[in-house]
Every structure is written in structure tokens, then in C-alpha cells.
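Course assignment 3, question 2. Fill in each field.
Student: A.L.
Task: Predict the tertiary structure for the chain below.
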Amino acid sequence: MAKTRLKNWPKGIKAGQLQWIGSPQRVGEERQWVSKLAFSFLSTDGQPRDSTFIVKAPWGMLPALRVGNIYREGVPGKRNRDERTVTAVVDTGLEVIAAREVPSSICKASTSFRASESCLRFQASSFQYYLPCCEIIRTLLGPNTWLANALMDPELLNEMIYGETHHGNASLVMSNVLPTSFAQAPLLQQLALLRLDAEWNNAFRQVFHDRQSIGVRTGRME
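Answer field:
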């Protein structure tokens, strides 16, 4: 499968490490939803520097973005050799904090860039973890391009997918304009949750409304 390339990658910059995925903003005459991505420059030995640069990407690219990935001329490379999946038992309560509180040793993106962003903080096995909210949104609510875009127009989910539950079983009827991949498991299970479970459906719709309230508070509504 071909890798997604960031079309707005700055000329002259060979590589960078993705440090943060910014909340969606509307820009340009076409009012396109985009996300500002903060990348750190890389030193000659491949380590992230403190200085960063910004690349704009369509919000629909969210499913392809991973904080920590190395990009070379806009194309994501292979995962780091020391990257691993961690199953952690949370020792302390989950806490939503302002992203500017994340130590610079963990995230190189400037505090001004993260001023209106949030993240989830928790502790497990003596380690402190910080999860950007956009990473959580991608995993739970926007795992593909259509769903990611629908987060900015949440009525689409209810208009394009109908369903009901009966004795613990869910049945879905989907518009024929949706990709055929939507009819495959485990995406069907996720769609059933997003459409039929009130808590999940509210969470899906809340992403857009929370984004609006952030914009009002920070003057970033466009």
C-alpha cells in the first residue's frame, strides 16, 4: 500500500519527527478543515532537536498520522526499532490537562503551539504517560478518512447509518454512498457503537462542539 505523503512539506527540509497533531481549523476560501502538525528538526544522528517547523495537512489525514513517526520529505518512514506496544495498568486517575504542561523533554512542539491543545495524563508502573487528545480521537472515533471528516460534520453519521438494537444484537443499514469497506468487521462493531450507543454517539458529536468552544476562547474560529 502506498504511503500517504504530506503535500505541504517544506522544500529543503529532508526529515522531521512528528511531535504534535493540532486541533482542526478551517482555512482558505474553500473553508477546508486542516490540522497544523508540529515537527522537530532532526540532528545528524537522527535525534529530535528543540527547534520545530509546522506543516498543514487535511484533517481527513488523521488516521494516517502517528506522533513520534519520522517523515522524510513528507513521507512517513518505518517505525522506530525501539517502539513497542505497552499494556499498562493505570495507577492514578486519568486526567485531562493543558498540553502546555507536557515537559519539553517529551514534546518538542512549542508551548505557544500547544496553548489551546489538551492531552490525557496518567501514571502506570512508575511511568508518566501523556496522550494527545487527537491521538485518542483517531483511535476511538476517527479510524478512517470518512469518519475523521464526519467528526467535523457529525450529523453525517446519523444521516448515513441507521440502526437498532434488539436483545443485545445490533443491526445497521448504511447508505450506498459509503465505502464497501464499512461492511467489514471489526469496523462494523465500531460503527455500531458510534451510531447506537448514546455515550459513544455523544462523544463523536462532542469533538466538533469542543473544537468550536476552543476556537471561541482563543480567537481561532475562522
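Instructor remarks: Residues 213-222 have pLDDT under 50 and may be disordered. The CA atoms of residues 194 and 200 lie 5 Å apart.
Grade: pending
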